[in-house]
Each structure stands twice: as structure tokens, then as C-alpha cells.
From TrEMBL:
This is L-asparaginase. Belongs to the asparaginase 1 family. The keyword Hydrolase applies. The keyword RNA-binding does not apply. Keywords: Hydrolase.
Length: 335
């Protein structure tokens, strides 16, 4: 039987964190990609794995350039013959990395992201099981052509909709509204939805800012637009506002949105964690109808952090004028 080769790139996170104190203390990233692989029983039966350590960071310390370097590494691994790629990282920003990778992943080979909620020294550590699931997912022919996937707790999610929805549970990931697209059961990877994905953004078109700046501003009760008004249009490549409910803000915040949207794309998203921005339901000052009239763009089903990364990626490719952003958000913010 031909054994498939899977490349594993480790970025750090709880899956790679240990404590110096044997009795257990605060953990920090210490483990290489190779030691993660060595800790997984049965992995050698699933695939021939080659592990590399790409970074050793807690995931709040990752940034877009680090993820773009991981993307380049993953592309090189597939060009070098890997049947699939797995990236391990911290769970805190995993949904963002996976989404950014998916925007640019232009291979049919699966790129699967995973991590762990319990560190390797903890009782019931979930890293080995998640890594095994991710490798099985990466070699499964059923995973081909689906873009970037997140394998966690035996479930498989698409990068576009997955979100970390619990700060401590081992089942921390959900895809609100749409649900997981597959499961790994008795070593078999099974999908409930047909193969398909949106066309990736073209990296060859990169001609925009090297490291675009796209702030995310969360609104709150009584927001008078103070923070948004501090942003100067010339310093940013776009802005995302995490609004109430279906993407709403206060009347004074709506005025601030309008002032900024005159010069840079401003996208409003829902801070609820589930469901889309409205389109035509409400007409009061600060509603979706009002914000669109002021030049802002509704994120649709994209949550604030993913709308922000889409703007970042568009700015990277130099295609972030209002019309380009409107079109891209309409396409990627729709199921
Ligand atoms: N809690 C995190 C994790 O699960 C820490 C991190 O994101 O690096 O990996």
C-alpha cells in the first residue's frame, strides 16, 4: 500500500506547551513539531509524517506575516509531494489563521489546522487525538478540494465558518449556524456536504501594502464614536466595526462610521457570534440600512475577526477600494 506523506508544521500553542515544574504550573511553548508527532500512538499507520517547527509561540503572539510564511511553507510541502498538510497552533487565534490560509490556499490537497485545549502533561491531553484526526483528514481523498479545514475533537469544520466558542472546554470549536462539515470516526473521515469552495484570492496579484493595517473596533452601549474618530483614514487600509445584533451602532457611532467610510472601506459585522448582518430590516439611525446609506458595507455571515482578515488580504493584494471590498464581502460573507 502506498503511504501518503503529510507535512506537519508546528507554530506553538497549548498543544506544544509544558511547565518546568513537575507538579504542574503555568505552561509555555517548548515542544518541537517532531516531539508532537512522537507523542501520537498510531500516527505512523495513518501516514508518513514529516514535522517541522515553524514557530514556537502562544497563538496571541502570531500575526498575519507569520501565517503567510506558514502558507508559503505549506505550498512548498505540497509542491514537494505531500498529499496533505497539517498546521498545529494555539486555539485562541486558530479560526483566524485557518480563515486567512483558506483565502489564499490554491491547492486541492487538504490543509488542516489543529491544536489542543489541554497541554501535553495534563490528564486527558487532547493534542495527540486532535493531531491524529488532522493527519487522517489530510490524507483522506474525501478531503481534497475543500480548502482549509479545522480538525478538532473528532469533528471537521470549514475554515470559513469555524469559531472558538468556549475558552476552556475540549470541544471549544463550533461552526455557528452551519455546523461541522465532517467527522472522523474509527479512523474514517466522513463528510456530510459535497466538495466545493470559493476560488482563492490570487497571491500572484500581491501589489498592495506589505503589512496592511485593518483595525477592529467593537461598539458598546452608549458609544459616542470616540475610538473610531481617533482613526485617521490615511493610517488604515480598512476598518471593521463589531456592531450590536445584526450589525447596529448608536446614532453618534453611525456618524463616525460615515465620516471614515467616505475615505476607507468600513465593514460592519455582528458581535453576537452567530448569524448575519441585516440588509433591509431596520431603518433607524445606526441600523444596517442607515450604515449602508453612509457608505459602510455589511459583513453578511462573516464574524468581525474574519471580515477583518478579508479586508487585510484584499489590502495585501491591492484590491481594497470600496467596490472591490463590497464584491468580496458579498461573495465570501454568503454561505
Ligand atoms: N489557549 C491557547 C491554546 O489552546 C493558547 C494559545 O492559543 O496559544 O493553544
Amino acid at each position: 500500500m502506498t503511504r501518503h506523506h503529510v507535512a506537519i508544521g508546528a507554530l506553538g500553542g497549548t498543544i506544544a506547551m509544558t511547565s518546568a515544574e513537575p507538579s504542574g504550573g503555568a505552561v509555555v511553548p517548548t515542544l518541537t513539531g517532531e516531539s508532537l508527532v512522537d507523542a501520537v500512538p498510531g500516527l505512523a499507520d495513518a501516514a508518513e509524517v514529516r514535522a517541522e517547527t515553524l514557530a514556537m509561540l502562544p497563538s496571541p503572539s502570531l500575526d498575519e506575516p507569520t501565517i503567510m510564511r506558514a502558507l508559503a511553507w505549506a505550498r512548498a510541502a505540497v509542491d514537494g509531494g505531500a498529499a496533505g498538510v497539517v498546521i498545529t497552533q494555539g486555539t485562541d487565534t486558530l479560526e483566524e489563521s485557518a480563515f486567512l490560509l483558506d483565502l489564499f490556499w490554491d491547492h486541492p490537497e487538504p490543509l488542516v489546522v489543529t491544536g489542543a485545549m489541554r497541554s501535553p502533561q495534563a490528564a486527558g491531553a487532547d493534542g495527540p487525538a486532535n493531531l491524529l484526526t488532522a493527519v487522517r483528514c489530510a490524507v483522506s481523498p474525501a478531503s481534497r478540494g475543500r480548502g482549509v479545514l479545522v480538525a478538532f475533537d473528532d469533528e471537521i469544520h470549514h475554515a470559513r465558518w469555524v469559531a472558538k466558542t468556549d475558552s476552556m472546554s475540549t470541544s471549544a470549536f463550533r461552526s455557528p449556524v452551519f455546523g461541522p462539515i465532517g467527522r472522523c470516526v474509527e479512523a474514517e473521515v466522513v463528510y456530510g456536504v459535497p466538495v466545493g469552495r470559493l476560488a482563492p484570492l490570487r497571491l500572484g496579484n500581491v501589489r498592495g501594502a506589505d503589512d496592511p493595517r485593518v483595525p477592529l473596533v467593537a461598539t458598546y452601549l452608549g458609544d459616542d464614536g470616540y475610538l473610531l474618530d481617533r482613526l485617521r483614514a490615511e493610517d488604515v487600509d480598512g476598518v471593521v466595526v463589531a456592531g450590536f445584533g445584526a450589525g447596529h451602532v448608536s446614532p453618534r457611532m453611525a456618524e463616525a462610521v460615515g465620516r471614515l467610510a467616505a475615505d476607507v472601506p468600513v465593514v460592519f459585522a455582528s458581535r453576537t457570534g452567530s448569524g448575519p448582518t441585516g440588509r433591509a430590516m431596520y431603518g433607524y439611525p445606526g441600523s444596517e440600512v442607515d450604515l449602508v446609506a453612509r457608505g459602510a458595507i455589511g459583513a453578511g455571515w462573516l464574524p468581525p475577526v474574519k471580515a477583518r482578515l478579508l479586508l487585510w488580504a484584499l489590502a495585501l493584494t491591492g484590491a481594497n477600494d470600496h467596490d472591490a471590498v463590497r464584491a468580496a464581502v458579498a461573495e465570501r460573507g454568503t454561505p
